[in-house]
Design a protein that fits this description.
seven-stranded mixed sheet; globular
């Protein structure tokens, strides 16, 4: 652990997406982010999740998940209440309805839009936007809470993470040396773009990152226009990227660069992440890994 890092007053840890086996996930962030960085005087934790996903069996064929049971908002609050006694952090959870989001903001998507992506079903495309909305909601929740406090946003550094992604390695969070327009991202699993599961950002970069759903929609609609213009003979196919390079990671890279964010990929071993599925198939192997490494101190029982 590095103790000579420059001190900063506040860091925000922002979770977005669908929680899966969150007690395990949360403990990994307590150990590898919060306890790892004593130079940060205070952590604030904000999280968004969909309030209606646990009410029905959950399936995601892309991830091999079939008729699984997800955690409820009350389950997540219980995790925070239990574990935060150890680190004395107030974690705040906000929820919205995925069904309502689909009704209000996803009806514009067409079956033909899946051809913009490589090997994506329409459901997978929708999940990209659902995750983007969850990120936007979590970030806006932070801003709303700051307004309620009638104070300026005093966050020095923003940490974005998914509640289905186990953090396997300690991370030293920078307080100084991270510009407002800079974002640190893992170099692994970038798929020709930017790893979209974890990031550390300055204030401007955080705002752009958290609003990436707008860039995704712009990209899909621009693709539609391009294809129509090609069919009408108004333009050639020059400038249209090959299908195999279109995914959520490449869209994120394009969005960040287009909004003057400096992307700084970190070393290979930085922010080693492991996705946890709803069915828990990898949990026995993960527990064995924890036991065989220094992660045994995490006390996953």
């Amino acid at each position: 652990m590095q103790h000579n890092l420059a001190a900063c007053k506040k860091a925000a840890l922002i979770f977005f997406g669908v929680p899966k086996h969150f007690p395990i996930i949360w403990k990994s962030y307590i150990q590898n982010i919060i306890k790892q960085n004593p130079q940060i005087e205070e952590f604030e934790v904000y999280m968004h999740m969909y309030e209606d996903l646990h009410q029905h069996p959950f399936s995601n064929s892309k991830n091999g998940e079939l008729n699984e049971t997800l955690e409820s908002p009350d389950d997540i609050r219980a995790v925070f209440d239990n574990e935060n006694n150890e680190v004395h952090i107030q974690a705040k959870l906000t929820t919205t309805s995925q069904a309502k989001f689909d009704e209000l903001e996803l009806t514009w998507l067409q079956e033909s839009d899946k051809t913009f992506f490589y090997n994506y079903s329409l459901t997978t495309v929708k999940n990209v936007f659902r995750q983007g909305n969850s990120l936007r909601e979590a970030y806006n929740y932070l801003l709303t809470e700051k307004r309620k406090e009638q104070s300026n946003n005093d966050i020095d550094v923003y940490i974005f993470a998914r509640p289905d992604t186990f953090l396997m390695s300690p991370i030293d969070v920078p307080c100084l040396g991270l510009g407002d327009d800079e974002i640190w991202v893992p170099s692994r699993n970038s798929w020709w773009g930017i790893n979209d599961r974890f990031a550390i950002a300055g204030s401007h970069a955080a705002n752009v990152y958290a609003n990436r759903i707008y860039g995704y929609k712009d990209a899909v609609l621009a693709r539609r226009i391009n294809l129509i213009e090609i069919e009408l003979g108004m333009r050639e196919t020059v400038g249209i990227p090959p299908q195999q390079f279109n995914n959520s990671e490449t869209l994120l890279r394009t969005w960040l660069l287009g909004n003057n964010v400096k992307i700084i990929p970190q070393m290979e071993k930085w922010a080693k992440l492991l996705r946890v599925r709803a069915g828990g198939r990898i949990l026995p192997k993960l527990m064995e890994w924890i036991r065989l490494t220094n992660g045994s101190s995490l006390n996953y029982n």
